[in-house]
Task: structure prediction
Amino acid sequence: MSNGNGTCEGAAGNFYSSSSPISTPDVNALHILSENLRSLLLSSSSFDCSDAEIRVDERVVSLHRCILSARSPYFRALFSRAKAAGETQAKLKYELNELLNGWRVGYEALMIVLGYMYSGKVAEPPSGVCTCADEACSHHGCRPAVDFALQLFYCAYVFQIPELVSLSQRHLVDIVENAYIEDVIPILAVANTCHARNDPLLTKCIEIVARSDLESTTLEKELPPELANQIFDFQSKFVLERQGKNIANDINIRRIQGALDSDDIELVKMLLNEGHVTLDDAYALHYAASYCDSKTTTELLELGNSDVNLRNTRGYSVLHIAAMRKDPAITVALLTKGANPLDVTADGRNALQISRRLTRAIDYNSITEAGKETPKDRLCIEILEQAERTDPLLGDASLSLALAGEDLRMKLLYFENRVALARLLFPLEAKLAMDIAQVDSTSEFTIIGDYNPASGNRRTNVDLNETPITIKKEHLSRFKALSKTVELGKRFFPRCSNVLNKIMDDDMSEFTCLEKGTSEERSIKRQRYDELKAMLSEAFSKDKEEFEKSVVSSSSSSSSLRDCQRHKNAKR
Result:
């Protein structure tokens, strides 16, 4: 779908196209009219004649009710209801996610749909929104191309624009031919929601999925029950042979999957003790990486009685599944347990290639401001890139038995502040590394006089006059957790680590051993160190509450079309 400029072209021709050649005066007049109307939508002049607006992706799009009412029965009815309800505000204001019943459609897709309503043309999308981060990809059926086409299709369907619905359907029919089977599933789900009688898109998707090697569990989890049953009936009717073992009918495996769905690792242990199946028999790690949260998957990994590089019946490793899930926490957890990033699928893709083809080029090439979350898609790519460069196996952080107590204290102070600074500047990356290193299970190290009970943090106060051996025993676990956090950061997040190196290693190198030098020098270094520590602590405390709120907001607003479909299915 790439035309060399980052825009998309469908296999059936120029779905996103510029204006047609002008051949007659009448056509020329229509073209001018089209461009004039389109300019109303895109106008940034101070003169504003709009009388409605839609908010999407924290942006506001100004609209004109007369044009939308003429082009769409949906908007005509929407504005009529507002008039009947006695709306008197100068501009009617709407949230796009409410108009689309919770389905996720982005700003770029909305503007193309609205542009079609204003001008009668399907404009080219901005560079990078429907192309993936893999430069070797043709972009005829990668996930960003699929997602963008689905957004246009669903938006046109809800807004009742039949010509654009028909164009989008034909475009998706061609995309299906080039998409991986995993990416056909969301197309099938949307086609099922928007289908008309004898819909060729829905029929084609059902046939492709039914003839695929997708497991029954996948169909049951990701499709509405009636649609999954329709596919099962199709398979039975044509006596289709499914490749590999169908684990869906094994009751013992079902019980393990049910325990994982409930995030009940203790129940998983009990079921394993019964001896009917093993975690590998149930492909439990694959299941957890697909459908469970990162905490449950990590706890399952910690049981240590499963093969982290096991292939499922389709030839996918757990790391391949994690790459498809686009969850950086699960990806890092697998790599630290020995998952091989170089393993390839039957069609020759490794985890990095899978991740690249799921990520929009615009997201991969974006620049994240300090203190803001890195997009998870891009973070997964960066993690897997680092894993391919060197051996991903990471053992416990090492600690020399000959380490002196005073050195340990100074290094602990250094690590405490480095990790605190990482949490402030790179919140998502720091959280991932700290979770893997289990920092929260240890007590924060602090010098007497520095502890603030109001902070609520669990801390261990230490007097610098204590004996070195006492310090060493008391803080060994904290030191190992913090040093492993730093090790993980350097290993998987070199971009972030380089920034921290500049701040900590260059600007704070003089503080790494505070008790050396004359009495006056020690006093000056201690004072400067405490000032910097207080500054970082204050900055982090101020940002912590806002960061936690942003995590919740980001988590609730970043659901994909497939996630929305699952929500709709659950309500049914």
Notes: The first strand starts at residue 52 and ends at 56.
